[in-house]
Amino acid sequence: MNKIIINGRLTRDPELKTGGSGVEFCKFTVAVDRRKKEDPTDFFDCTAFGKTGVAISKYVTKGREILVQGRMESNTVDKDGQKRTYWGINVETFDFCGGPAGSAPSADAPASDGFTAVPDPEGLPF
Q1: Which site in 2, 102, 120, 125 is 20 to 30 Å from 12, CA atoms measured?
Q2: What pTM does this model have?
Q3: CA distances from 106 to 5, 99, 110 (A)
Q4: Residue 16 forms beta bridges with which residues?
């Protein structure tokens, strides 16, 4: 199984493009902080196709927090006689999480981190 889930912020506005076959796709990069502040930030290049890509390009902007689920894919490119492998995420689904970086919630908006707690049907505490 190949599945990855990341939570981070867009480093720039998404770019919506149309491929040769007429399929729309959106490219964007997500910055994901590690637990410790002294650890480096990871950057993930993401591509979303079709309606998912159109929605991301329309509603998500630079600095906005997003949760992305998809699969990791590698692409080997021959540049100047040297083969290089690049890894990226092919986005299957996404969710909004919070607001833009540094923004305060509006007075009308309920306090939320973008996730809804679902009660455990068996009443287990974990």
Answers
A1: 2
A2: 0.72
A3: 28, 10, 8
A4: 26
